[in-house]
Amino acid sequence: MRQSVVLARHSDGDSIAVEKIEATVSWNDGGSIALAYTIRGELNRLRFSRHLPPRKSDRLWEHTCFEAFVAIKDQLSYYEFNFAPSGEWAVYAFRAYREAAALPIEPTAPRIAARSAGDRFELAATIAIDRLLPFRPGARLSVALSAVIEDNRGMLSYWALKHPPGKPDFHHPDSFALEIEAPGW
Predict the structure, then answer these.
(1) Burial tier of 2 (Cβ tally within 10 Å: 0-12, 13-18, 19+)
(2) What is the mean predicted confidence (pLDDT) over 141-163?
(3) d(Cα 182, Cα 185) in Å, to the nearest integer?
(4) CA-to-CA distance for 154 and 140, rounded, in angstroms?
(5) 5: closest CA among 68, 49, 63, 61?
(6) Contact partners, residue 42, CB within 8 Å, separation at least 6
(7) Averaged pLDDT, 143-162
């Protein structure tokens, strides 16, 4: 299973250099989800963090950052995953809309790879979702995909599969616009 989507820019953000952001979601063997984000545009007008050794870090959304929110369909609890071009990452748990919860276990660090060529920047991340989110084979997962992109002026643009009314809010239940089925291993 591989699903491809195009993210839409929120009207509150500036995007002088980004033409398009595409994302794909697919299952890997063993309960991991592979995510890939592709930016097309004038990369020299965007700000990407320098590469660092992979590590957990907070507040990644203040600069260029790619995000995935995952829940079991029709459940209030969900997880937020953040991936920076630097290799930094974060995972957060929520009981319900923006209601933080403790992570049930220490998450496995995602595998993150970033590269650029010409007018195209790609970030790929693989997350071991089955360690955090117990689900049965064939379960339906609800997913929200998003990105915050910083340009070289420090301006941010906000991209998501679906934006609810009002300010950018990637946590909003309406943002969980993609459904994927867990494989039947």
Answers:
(1) exposed
(2) 95
(3) 9
(4) 38
(5) 68
(6) 16, 17, 119
(7) 95
* Tens digit of each residue's pLDDT (9 = 90 or more) over 55-108: 999 999 999 999 999 999 999 999 999 999 999 999 999 999 999 999 988 888
Residue 173: per-residue pLDDT: 96
Q: Which two tokens stand for residue 26?
A: 């697919």
Please name the amino acid found at residue 77: S
Of 57, 87, 82, which is closest to residue 68 (Cα–Cα)?
Answer: 82
Q: Which two tokens stand for residue 20?
A: 């398009």
Q: How many CB atoms lie within 10 A of CB 59?
A: 9
DSSP summary character for residue 151: B
Residues 139 and 88: their CA atoms lie apart, in Å, by: 30
Task: Dump pLDDT digits (tens) for 164-176.
Answer: 999 999 999 999 9
Distance CA 101, CA 82 (A): 16
Q: Is the pTM of this model over 0.90?
A: yes
For 146, 177, 183, the CA distances from 135, given in Å and listed in that order, are 23, 19, 10
95: which 2 tokens?
């009981």
Residue written as token pair 């660090």: 109
Q: Do the Cβ atoms of 123 and 89 come closer than 8 Å?
A: no
Q: Which domains does the chain have, with CATH numbers?
A: 2-180 (2.60.40.1190)
Cα angle for residues 9, 22, 51 (degrees, 5° grid): 95
Q: Which residue carries 């643009």 as its tokens?
A: 157
